Fold these 4 entries.
Entry 1:
Amino acid sequence: MEMRAISGKKPPPYTRASESACRAKRAAGTAVTDFFSQYQVERGRIVSGSITARDLLPQPHLEPRVTPFSALHDTWQFSRLVHAMLRQGEPPIRTIIDLGAGSSIPTIYALLCTEGCHVRVQAIDTDEAALGVSRSNVEASGLSDRYEFIHAEMIAWLSTQSLERYTGVVANPPYLPVPSGTTDPRYAPVDGGEDGTKYLAHILQHPMPIGTYLALEWCSLSHPERVIALIEQGFDVVHVQANDIDRGIYTEDPHLKPHLLRQHKRGEAALIINEDGSLGWTFIGTVLRKR
Ligand SMILES: C[S@@+](CC[C@H](N)C(=O)[O-])C[C@H]1O[C@@H](n2cnc3c(N)ncnc32)[C@H](O)[C@@H]1O
């Protein structure tokens, strides 16, 4: 795994999904299953609670700060996805646009893990506190001259941009289905609207030059059928990674759980339903190239 090459540090816990776990997934949602069957998917399983902030950066002396949004599994999976995008970029990516940058750990990880990388990053987030955390992580990593921090709403900002060639757009946007009318700010960093596609759909439909790379994080709950259709309309799929988490903090949340079960019943979400009734889901990371 990438981390080992840089630091000799033990990689975060990651186990190959067993055949039975894959079978459970097949039962969990056909859109997801069909999508996975078409591509070489890097499969795995995340053990709840096993990833710490120190696992997220490849250099032992760095002490990353995390944002109040602290779903570390998600950040870890997305870090590996951004790294996969940089490895794939041909011709090499010159600029990364990070929509919903949060702590910026994923782009820092990817830059530090990619040899000879001179990429510049525009980090966009609507949360000023998150941008503060981002700034301090970037400074601690010695990358300040490569970053620009932009306090903006991602879709409004994106709609003013015409993207240049050799850009890599990366996004781990809010993608969980959240019941409409939810006002509790705790859900803001993950609120992808009723079906989870509020941001995903905008990003996938934004005009991009042919060849633009898009590293997009989503999940088995964010209306996979719709997301897959949008992917297939405009992009070639370059890389897919999927990690199951048996017991997610959000799937067990009493406010979200009934809504997620309804979405699952409608076929607009694919939950992992464990024998004890607890719920899990699959993180899905895709590196896409605009056709
Ligand atoms: C799921 S977190 C991902 C954070 C980080 N990229 C990571 O992978 O760890 C989503 C981030 O998007 C930000 N965000 C939420 N809605 C946003 C919006 N409309 N515009 C810009 N940023 C937004 C949140 O503040 C949060 O930092």
Entry 2:
Amino acid sequence: MAATKAQFEKSYKYKQHDHLICADCSKVFEFCDPRIYEIQKLAGELLNFNITSHSLNFHGKCTKLATEGTCENHKP
Ligand SMILES: [Zn+2]
């Protein structure tokens, strides 16, 4: 049973996703990269810290305003 639970938690954490947030239209784009979980795991091991969750947000601008000249927060 313990192995099943661990496997579930592993795959659950694996699917944890992170965000790109657009400063123009405030849209949130989700992405998932397993390397981020590897970093979390390594940092926890190095610092003997039991990490239970994380949040990672990248802020910037999506291409909508640049390509279409408008977006939800920028009316022409
Ligand atoms: Zn945008």
Entry 3:
Amino acid sequence: MPDKPILNADEWRIADPDRPSEQLSREQLLEMYYFARLAREVEERLVVLFRQSKVIGGLYRSLGQEGESVATAYALERRDAVLPLIRNMGALMTMGVRPIEIFRQYMARGTSNSRGRDLNIHIVHLPDADADEPVIVGPISMLGDSIPVAAGIAMGARMRGRPRVAMAWIGDGATSTGAFHEGMNFAAVQKIPLVVVAEDNKYAYSKPIARQMAIRRIDERAASYGIAHELVDGNDMLAVYDAARVMVERARAGEGAQLLGVDTMRMQGHAQHDDARYVPKALLDAWTAKDPLRQFRGVLNDRGAAHDRELDDIDKMAKDYAAREAEAAASEPLPDPASVVRGVYADDPYTVPKLEFVRSPFAGSPGLKTRPTPEAVAGDDT
Ligand SMILES: Cc1ncc(C[n+]2csc(CCOP(=O)(O)OP(=O)(O)O)c2C)c(N)n1
Ligand SMILES: [Mg+2]
């Protein structure tokens, strides 16, 4: 386990005395909870589809990491760039990706983001220049390579005079690759507005963290590049949001790349085909008690933001929505075999379809909105 201190919501420290989460309205807190619950319910539905052999390929879950995925993405603005990996369904939901897009892609429908061709986790969105939408580059299989790509996206946007912060999530195992280190160093010297979320989830497939790095805190990976870094309790959504928000603002203000380490746990095997027998039960039990959704419910109760009954209603809403979206995707056609040679040559306008985005059901807090700046009055996003 990493040495203390790991920041949690009661130990606010990050040089900045103000905690951005205190600016969040009740609606926004509920929206964060909803996104995390929706991520979990979309994956629960994918498990059902996987067991019915309707998922084409493997299924990689983010159980236990929904909180950090949502709370980091919630610190962004809608035109920012995100590079999630397989544990970041929460980031996709937070950026407003319509759940049907996930189901289409996992079931290789002809309507999907890759027209049923590419790996089921490869979600991509390259918005039109003036669209109020995020750039999304989904999991790149060669781990570590998303960091130089993220740096390039943010640098390119800056060169075009349309700056975007890029946020990339990366696992502990992937931080051991050469591409990760080259990308970090490049981002540091170029002062690129890149925020890297490094997830210490205790395993890279079956390799425990102690055999992955000889340092005890994953955020120290950043130290040799002169990149600002911090480590937070990844299952404490407000602690994660606070740190992410400060880092995003600093990156946007020209202070260069930042790295946020999150201390969390992969609660299932690497994928559905891995029973994770190598993970000690005591470790899983300890982290079950720290489930991010259950913890956040406690926070919302304590703050008087929501009673359990209201949160149960949100749970049901997310679950029903995921089921409806899965059903709708399942009724869509598989790719037309005659289209197999389409999109091979540049002069064929058979391009990748744009993703559909949705707003969350929270009045005044659409899923794709400009997050309030710390100075803004919370809840005034009309
Ligand atoms: C360069 C590279 N090496 C190996 C793999 C195979 N692989 C895919 S995911 C994975 C484990 C990654 O662990 P980590 O980075 O800790 O992320 P986590 O799965 O824990 O979220 C491995 C070894 C790969 N995709 N790319
Ligand atoms: Mg890992």
Entry 4:
Amino acid sequence: MSITCPDCHAELEPQNGVAHCDRCNKDIPLEARCPECHKPLQVLKACGAVDYFCQHGHGLISKKRVEFVPV
Ligand SMILES: [Zn+2]
Ligand SMILES: [Zn+2]
């Protein structure tokens, strides 16, 4: 899935919870959401790795399945 820059509408690749727009030269903070219930996920950071956990019964969500939305 992809993110669109709110300013110039360029397609951005989300990486580690932010999307960087080269055209605007800024970082857009993203919120991770559960693909099942669309509620914000708890972000668990450990040793440089990031895990996403749904507190509404869906458990750990793999990074590929996380929905990122601009905050
Ligand atoms: Zn932009
Ligand atoms: Zn969920």
